[in-house]
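Human: We require from you a standard protein entry with sequence in single-letter code and fold as tokens, and nothing else.

Assistant:
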Amino acid sequence: MASSSSGSPAQGVDGDRLIAVRRLVPRSGAEYRVLVMSGLTALLIIAVDQLSKIWAERFLQGQPPIRVIPGFFSLAFVTNKGAAWGIFNGHAPMLLVVALVVLAGAIWFFRKLTEGYTERYFALMIILGGVVGNAIDRLWRGEVVDFLDFVFGSYHFPTFNIADSAICCGVALYMLSSLLRRDPSGMKDGGKA
């Protein structure tokens, strides 16, 4: 009978000392629970993203920005027919295809990308929730709705949305996991693949 919670320990780094890290066993009860929880997290991100965009369309569109923290944070309705920072503007069909390819690739290589680490399941599902949220916009609206607007001194950060935030947070979590899952020699997981 397979272990329901973990596989063999792998070595990771916690400051200067090694810690034992247990990986999820493929097709185990523990992996199933993590998949369900991370999948629900992705669905929650999609729901919050879409509801916030509906709210922005209803209450912010055609209105002056709402200054939440003057000189720093506002709610301002903006649409984007491109990708981040307006790049590839007017190429929504191509961006939708890219999103679908990313989605399919992440699902196909999911186990290889997670390597059995719980935080990577969540990282990938958070990213996919964001990708799907913006893909829905491209399909439904023909453009992405953005409304979170920040200014840092004289720099006006490009307006973004919940899906964009999820993608950035998921990527950061995945990168952090990749960095911390190394042994002192620099090899991942104590030299194991």
The helical segments are 29-59, 92-108, 110-114, 118-140, 162-180.
